[in-house]
Structures are given as C-alpha cells and as structure tokens.
Amino acid sequence: MIVIMNPDATMRDKSAVIARAEDLGFKVHLSEGKERTIIGIIGNDRVINREQIERMTGVERVVPILKPFKLASREFKASDTTFPLGNHTIGGQEIVIMAGPCSVESRSQIIETAIACKEAGAHILRGGAFKPRTSPYAFQGLGEEGLKYLAEAREVTGMPIVTEVMEPALVPLVSEYADILQIGARNMQNYALLHAAGESQQPVLLKRGMSGLIEEWLMCAEYILSHGNTRVMLCERGIRTFETYTRNTFDINAIPVAKHLSHLPVVADPSHATGKWEYVAAAAKASVAAGADGVIIEVHPRPDEAMSDGAQSLKPEKFARLVVEMKAIAQAVGRDVRP
Amino acid sequence: MIVIMNPDATMRDKSAVIARAEDLGFKVHLSEGKERTIIGIIGNDRVINREQIERMTGVERVVPILKPFKLASREFKASDTTFPLGNHTIGGQEIVIMAGPCSVESRSQIIETAIACKEAGAHILRGGAFKPRTSPYAFQGLGEEGLKYLAEAREVTGMPIVTEVMEPALVPLVSEYADILQIGARNMQNYALLHAAGESQQPVLLKRGMSGLIEEWLMCAEYILSHGNTRVMLCERGIRTFETYTRNTFDINAIPVAKHLSHLPVVADPSHATGKWEYVAAAAKASVAAGADGVIIEVHPRPDEAMSDGAQSLKPEKFARLVVEMKAIAQAVGRDVRP
Amino acid sequence: MIVIMNPDATMRDKSAVIARAEDLGFKVHLSEGKERTIIGIIGNDRVINREQIERMTGVERVVPILKPFKLASREFKASDTTFPLGNHTIGGQEIVIMAGPCSVESRSQIIETAIACKEAGAHILRGGAFKPRTSPYAFQGLGEEGLKYLAEAREVTGMPIVTEVMEPALVPLVSEYADILQIGARNMQNYALLHAAGESQQPVLLKRGMSGLIEEWLMCAEYILSHGNTRVMLCERGIRTFETYTRNTFDINAIPVAKHLSHLPVVADPSHATGKWEYVAAAAKASVAAGADGVIIEVHPRPDEAMSDGAQSLKPEKFARLVVEMKAIAQAVGRDVRP
Amino acid sequence: MIVIMNPDATMRDKSAVIARAEDLGFKVHLSEGKERTIIGIIGNDRVINREQIERMTGVERVVPILKPFKLASREFKASDTTFPLGNHTIGGQEIVIMAGPCSVESRSQIIETAIACKEAGAHILRGGAFKPRTSPYAFQGLGEEGLKYLAEAREVTGMPIVTEVMEPALVPLVSEYADILQIGARNMQNYALLHAAGESQQPVLLKRGMSGLIEEWLMCAEYILSHGNTRVMLCERGIRTFETYTRNTFDINAIPVAKHLSHLPVVADPSHATGKWEYVAAAAKASVAAGADGVIIEVHPRPDEAMSDGAQSLKPEKFARLVVEMKAIAQAVGRDVRP
Known about the structure:
Four copies of one chain form a homotetramer. Helices cover about 35% and strands about 20% of the residues of chain A. In chain A, strands 7-8-9-10-11-12-13-14 form an eight-stranded parallel barrel, surrounded by seven helices. The relative contact order of chain A is 0.13. Chain A is α/β, with parallel strands linked by helices and about 350 residues long. The longest helix of chain A has 17 residues, at about 315-330. In chain A, a hairpin with a 2-residue loop joins strand 5 (about 85) and strand 6 (about 90). Chains in contact: A-B, A-C, A-D, B-C, B-D, C-D. Chains A and B meet through helix 2, helix 6 and helix 7 of A and helix 2, helix 6 and helix 7 of B.
C-alpha cells in the first residue's frame, strides 16, 4: 500500500501514518520527494483498512498494490478452472452453448423449446422459474411449478438446467432441480445470496451487475469461492451506459480481461447485452472470437407471445443458424462447438 | 401505447398488430404518414406486454404513454406524503436530519456518537449492524448485537433508529429494533427483500441503486407500497458514472425530479454521494437548497479508526457546524431545521 | 411527431398545440384516452422544433417518429456504400486493415513501421502528425514534417495514408498528403471541422466521440454527407463508462447497429477501445466477427519508446499473428482479408 | 511515479525499469514485497511518458504521484483567482448571475430579453450567435449579425456579454464584440480553439465536456493558462450518464472539487444541467449552496418560440423570482447577490 501525503502534511502527520503501519506489523519505507512525500507500507495490504488511513490527517490518497480478490485470481491458481457438466466440459477447449426461453411459461412451452434448442445444438437448457421484474404487476414466474417443468424438459432432452435463484431461502429448493444456479445481474452484490450459493456447492453462473466493475464482480465470485465452491462461471451480460439504442452496452473487453485476471470460465449473454434479437447473432459471434468459454442465449418458439424478454429472443431457426456460425468462429480461434 | 411500424411493414403486419390490440380489448387508431405508419393503442397500456408487441413483424419500436408506476405517482396521490417519526414529521415543512456512524462497532462507540449527533442537532440515529461489504474478508457488522446497542443508544438519546436490512429472512428481527428499515443501494432491486419490507409495515428508507433509473427506483417503491405500506422514503445517494474523483456522482437533479413524479419524501445521502468528507458539507447544503426533505450523514468521533467508510465520515464538530448551515439554507427556502 | 399532454392539460392547451401544428402545415390527429391525451402530428417532423412544442403549456413530452439523420440512413440508401482506396475496396466483401504508429516520430520510425505493417498484411498506413493531447506539455506531433514522412512511407510501401486533422484551417494542408482524413473522437461534434472535411471531398474516417450516442454520430456523418462527400467511414473506438480497468469500453453492439441504421462502412479501433495491448487482439477478432468492414490498429516497433499510446501498441510480430487470426475469422463469417 | 511490477517480473525486467529512470535523471527506490516489487521514481514525474513505462516488460501498472495540471492548481496558486468584469467581481464574495437566451434570434428579441434579465437582477448577458447544433439542418445562429445585436443590447443595459466561439479562426471576430469567450462542452478538448482563446487574452468561460473528467477539464484550462491568460472560469453544465429523464446529470460534486483542486472561479449552468425548465430553479439554488461563484441561466420571453433550447429556458418572471431565492441562499452561506 502506497500512502501519498499532501504537500502541506507535517512531520507529525507523516510520523502518525508510519507509527500506525508499524503498529499493525508492517515494514515501512519513507520517500521524500520535492513535491510529495510517499510512505510505502510493505506486505499484505489486504488486511489494512484503507479508508482509515485515507482519513488520517495529511493524507492525500492511498494506492493499494494488491488486487482485492485472491481465490478468484490467476495468482492463486494459474491454470484455467474446468469442470464437467452433463457430457460437456465447462472452461475447456469447447464452447458451451446454453439456450432456452427467458421464462418458463408452461409445460408444453419449455419442452417444445428445449427440444428445438437441443436439435439446434445447445448443450444446456436455460429458463426462469423465479423472475426478477421491474414492475410488481408483471409476470413473476411459475415458481416451483416452473422448476418441475424444467426437470421434465431435462429428462426429455438430457440437457442440464440453469435457472435463476433470487433469495437465500430458496437456494435449497432451486438446487433440488437445477444443475447450475444463476445469480442475476440485480443480485450480483446480494451477499446473503452469494453466501447461500457458495454453501450449496452447486455450480453457479454469476452475472455481472449493470454497474459492476470487473474487480467487484470478481470479489462477488470470491464470496462464493470462499465457501470452497469452485464451480463458478462469470457471465458478462452488458453494462449500463449512456447509450440507449441497445438495452445494455456489451462490454466485450470484459471477456479477455476477466480471463486475464481470473482462472474462472467466462460466459457471454448476448441476449441481455443487446436487448434486441437483430443484434444477438453479431454479439454472440463476437463473444466467441473474444475468447468466451460459453454463451447463453434466449430462444423462444413464438417471441411475440413470450411473457418476458420477447424482443431479445431468437426463433429456433435463427438460433440453429447461429450455432453453425459460432462453430465456424470457434474453429477459427482454435476451439470448437461439439454436438 | 404508440406502435411505430418500419417503413417496409406490410398491410398484413399492420393488421396483425391491430388485431392483437383489439383482441386485448383496446381501441386502436391508425395513422398512415408518408414515411411511417403509427398505430395508437388507446387505454391503460400498463397491462400490455410491450416486448411482445415489439417482437411482432414490421414493428420498429413501441412508445409507452403511461408511467409504469402508479401508487408512487403524483397522479395517484397529488399531495406530499408525510408521517410522524419520534417528535418530528417526515415529508413536511421541516428538514429531518439522520446521522451516525457507518457501522455500529461497539456499545460505547454508538452511544458516544449518538449523544454527539443529538447534541449537534440530529433527529434520527443511523448505524449499520449488518453491513454489505465488497470483500468477504472485511468487517461484516456486529449483527444482532449491533441492533441491541442501537436500541440502547435510542434509549439514551430518544432518537429513532434507521438501520439496514439485507435479506428477507432478517426483516422480522431488524424490525424488532429499528424504527426505519434501510434498503441499501445494492439491494434496490432485491425484490424478495422489497416484498418483505412492504409486508413488515415498517417505515422504509429506499436507497437508489448505483445504476438505477429514477423510474426504476419508483418502481421499487411501488413494490413496497403494493403491500399497503405507505411510509416509504426515497434516498438519493449518488450514481455510478465515469467520474472517479468522487466515490459516486451525486445526482442532485433526482431530488426535484422525484418530488415532481412522486408524493414520497426524498432524503439525500451526501456521505455516499461524495465519498470524501471534504465535500459532504457542500453536497448536504445543496440537497437542502434543491428541496430534499431530509439528509442522512455519516458521523464518527474518530474517523481514522472507523471500521468502514471512515473517509466519508464527519467528526461531530464539523457535523454540528453543518447543521447550523443547513438550518440557514432551510430557512432561505421557506423550511426549517427544528431542535 | 407524437405530443403527449399532461393529465391536467386544459382544452385550451390542447387547442394551442393543434393550432400550432396546423399553422405549420401539418395534419393533426387527436386521441383522448382516459388518462392522457395524445396529439399526433403527421408528416416530416424533422422540420418542427421539438423543444418549442415541449415548452408549450400542458405538454408532458414529445416523441419524434423519424430518425434525425437522412443521408446517412438506410432508408435514404438501402445498399452498402463502397468505394475503392488503393488496391482495396472499403465497405465490400473484404475486411480492410489499417495499421501504424500512434504518432509519426521520425522519418526512420514511420518508414520502418510502414514496411513492417505492410509485410504483416496491412492495407492502409495510419500515423498522427497533428496529435490531440490531454496535456499542453506533451508531445504534440511533428506537424507538416510528419505529413511529409508519411508521404514518403506511402511511396516506399504503396499503402494509402490515414491521418488526423484537428482544425478546419488545416484541412487543405492535410488533404495534400493524406488519402483519408481522420476526425478524432474529441472532435466528433466540432462542426466547423466537419463542414471543412465535407467540403474537401476527401474520404473521411469519423471516430465516435467518447460520449457520443450512435444517433449523434450518424448526425455528424450527416454534416459531412450534406456537402456531397459520400466517402465517409464510421469508426467505433470505445466509449467512456464507469469501468476503468480498460481505457474505454468497446461498444461492440455499435457495429451491427450502425450497419443496420446506415449504409456507411464501419471500422473498429480495438487499440483505443481497450487501451492495453494485451486485449487488442481479442477486441480486433470480435470486431471482425461482429461485422466490421475494417480495423485500425496501433503498431510500433518499440512500444516502450513510443511518444504516445505505447501501452496500447502492438509489436509487428504480434500484429502479423493477429492478421492471420482475423483472416480466419473473416472467412468464417463469409468475408476475407486479402493480401 | 510508482511502478508496480508483475508477480512474475524478472530481475532483468526490474533492472531495465530502474536503468530507464536513472537515464532520465531520476532517483529510484526499490521495494521488494512478498507478492509484488515496487519501484519508486522520485521527482517531477510530469516529464516522464507514463505509457512508455507501462509498456516495458514485467510492468503491471504505473501510478503517477503528481497532478497533471500545474498552473490551474491550488498548489501553484493557493488563493482564489478573482477579476473584475463590468461593475462586478468574478470569483469573489459575490455570486455573479449570467442570463439570456440560448440563441440571439433577432435584434428585438435580444434587447427585450436583456432588459428583462437586467431588471430581474442579472449581471452579464448570455446569447449565442454561433450555435453548435446536433443537426446540420437546424438553425445555426445569426453569426456576426448576432454579435452586433448583442453589442447593442450591452449598450442598452450596460451588461457585459458572454457568447460562444466555435472555431479558432473566429476568435478575433468574436473577441471584438464579446467580453467573455465561451468554449462549449463539445469543444472542451478542441485544442486549437483552446490555444486561440488563450492567445486572445480575453476572459474565457470553459464548459466541462459531457464526458470530461474533472482532471481533464483542468488540463483544458491549463491550455488557456499556458498562454498567460489567467481570466479563466470553469463551468459545470452536467455530464452524460445512464439517467435520461433529465438532459444531463448535474455533477454538483464538481463544484467543491474544482474549487478544492483549483483557484479558478466555478460557474454553474443549471439550464443545460437539467434540460427542463421545471428543475432549473432547484439546480440553481443547489449550485449557490454548494459554493459556485456564479450561475448562467437561459431566459427567453417566449420559450415556446425559442429557436433553440426552449424546453430549458425560464420566462423572465420565473427568473426574477429565482434571483431573489438565490440571493437568500447566497446570504445563508456568507455570500451575496449584488444589484
């Protein structure tokens, strides 16, 4: 940790900072420049409360040296995290494709969609049973009934299931049915939920919050990892910016950055990242080219009847064509989309 | 709802939209311009699924006419919502001042701070017992022990308590001790928590999320109001933007806008909105001038020992001076800060 | 144009809006719903001053129907704009690669870099002679001397030149040397410069401003097109958001959106869009997969000696490898990178 | 400057950084921690090219210690910059009020508005003769004719004039008429224009760009100051964020921050910062409470006929009432609005 003192900081101010650091057991190095004095605090600065130091008299600012996350970092684990799911491997050479409707709307709808997705080349089935909705008056999902229909669709198609869980108390119930727990963007920093998902030891798909810094996102993964649950996937789904033509701004940079900083697999969600079906294919192909380990795409047989997110859902035919295109790009970058 | 068709939409596309609206029981008006066809759907468009319509063939975009919130709106209730709390009235002519430390750290710390805040002119005591922290390794609050110390501080000073609740399961426990439940910025769209806070019938201080649109914030208030719990305060605490010199960007516009759109009281949080104690006073005074009904300010007797948010906490002397300045501004805008 | 009236607008307010529209020669349609009155103004609403209408008594908001740009739109010209440059075609089936150093630093540096870029597969040489710099104390470019060195590098390699022009008075001088005028992000809305670039009839590479909406960017292209200069390329180079790990956030969505709204070619600048060389290749490949018609990449033989933007410059070897990867992706999406 | 090395940087990498710094004449301090090596480069780091160092092998990141601006900083000049303008002093104890229409539309319009503003208490007249417009088809201002009308309005009312200049070539012409040159938000980083404004030795009102960091804004002031032109006012006019209910987000924090970092006067523009007349008064009052040295407000006698920015213009009566309110707040914070 580097402490930069104000130009008008007194010797007394500097001594106080040094004494504080030494009391905490750190070695200190003082460097007095012409315009600024710098105090270096040498050691594991994760354990020092940065804001306390910032609030000491004469301190201009504090620069932490170490990344705040540990278990999620490449320094802790250099090699990519991979794990099997169904007949596929997450985080490995193949690109994993998750697809399905935004919401489970009925037994027939989810089974019909699951079959269409499977035929088009999807590996994992997505579908929401508990839905976070901006309006309390909108469809909130079928709840446990929806989970049952998902399980039936899994039986029919053999595809594992990813579905969202929105509150800690429901983690056990959702874990009974789901193969992957999805933490939604609005809940990225719902710490009680992160703890519960960590404890569950289920694979987790952790969406980045609309205004979540990449480092904060990794800190949220750290919450889950700290329970010994290592099967965590990061999911970039677009961030909120001033541009409103698309629903979100797809932060494609986040894919290589997250893979550089962390060993965890990164999945892209081009449906939410664009919010309009016309742009989903371009964003999905870009994800694969940028190094994503998987994609999650909303597919609905009749998007103009979808109870949520119809505008960003692909019809099965378009999705099938997209799988072929993604496979070609995967091969162009030395990876593959397997059957 | 206004549906704008693509320039190349066919008669068949237009008829399909009209038929859909009529099937839903709406009256429709068709307006064919030279460059675009517009279909007006007349009536309460809150019940139509906008995304379904957007996904119909030939539709360019859909413009909703009505605001998505109802109970929170001025149209539903024209006059300001006011309610008593302790010896003061929230939402009325007086400006209510909430103050206290970020976290409850010990029995003595909270009682000492409460007495200092009370003497300086505060009306309500803030203090966190359950703390949302970016890092799983940081101090997470004292939990129920912290709530007990808060209750003791209330006994000593007579000030009502506002404290954060982070998960639905803890709403009953926190409600036993707190006079106001705080929903934090990270949990603005934690719908399970909003439902639980609504059901509790406790006064709620609802912080705006870091990337929450003003309309989304009001929709979150709607979740609480929909349970018949009308004692909801909106709290502007800064939004996340590209500017990083301050911790957040204080959206001062949100104060008059929220008061224009809604009848609910609006409280400003200049501590989080700036993140640096040097700027808290300027932001607090600006809030009062802009029409806020209250402020919530972090105060700590020894900020360089605070276990969280030390950098943005005022010492009691500075806070006391600020109360005097806010009172002068309150009077300049026809309001007051009462003892 | 749709005018939405306040719920409390009077008959007199509505009549005033209708009268105003009719005086301007428009047909009007009135639709009185239960909660809102809507006034439709039918015709080319680009000529009505929206803000005047918004300021009329009783008006809640105004929704324009037509896009504000015309010459830049697909409706004006449905087919892709293409034009030859050197031995290549911009906007056609092939992906055009522009490469070179941020700044021209010396005769030998630009010639050495040009040769390396050409050998690696670049088609067009980039290099700044006039440099916009955040600090008045930083290197501001070699000026006309730099242009002369660029022209020499063109002679040696046969590659056309793209270089930035920063003020209207310099457009004639820069046009003498350059094959493409670059308008930088900071100058996207420098209207005097846009007019001058339009008048020059030179090909223009128009970078998107750091906070430019896609529609505003197209309006800036419209300024150039309105002079009959049709050889305009749009260049997405990242936008400014809350995320600071990368220099900018690459708005990959902007590529398919700009191509959907406009017939103009779209070029991506992964160097500025990421700001760190480690992520340039991922972003460049994503651009090609998303449908960009070209890329512009900073290459420097010794980035740690570059006088500007060293951190985001690729060494020639890395660039050569990237060209091979981009070619593979281009082919995967039915396009090509030609020699 | 602090150089933080990668965990896997070699001795050779570290030596290269040290050698580079020593070659540039700096003293160096090496600190080897358990997880990271830190190299401190001691001295005036403004002259080192940060990006070159960042691009050296083994470097993780570089932290500059000194602020990039000098002449604009409080360290260079501790006391507030003040200067007389007409009968008033900018930057002193009084709050200066600038008012007038967005555009000069006609001789009678500007004279009528000037008289009304003067009567209401304004000190300086604003009005645009050259207008930056998003659309090339919108009214672009009356040009020199507008400047002449402004000069006439000055003669009638005695108020000095502030008006925008958009290109370097027009600085001499605009300077003939104007008392203050305004640099608009879109031109904050138009460096040729900043140089020309600096050379003119005229007072300058420098608006912050829509996505300009506070430090970048001060660097732009530095461009002007570097010509020995010390009469520079900073103008906060709102920044672009995800919130679209208001035209911009008024960054009220920027007022105390700019005054903390710099000795230059700070003016607020609540008209652009909100974009809707309903919220201008709240924002103007907040500006004064937050410490602004002046405000600039759009006033139009008939906003629904204004040729630009009608939606955010106040009528003279409302403006007159606002001046009274601002005076009360000015006095509450120990300042004043003088006649």
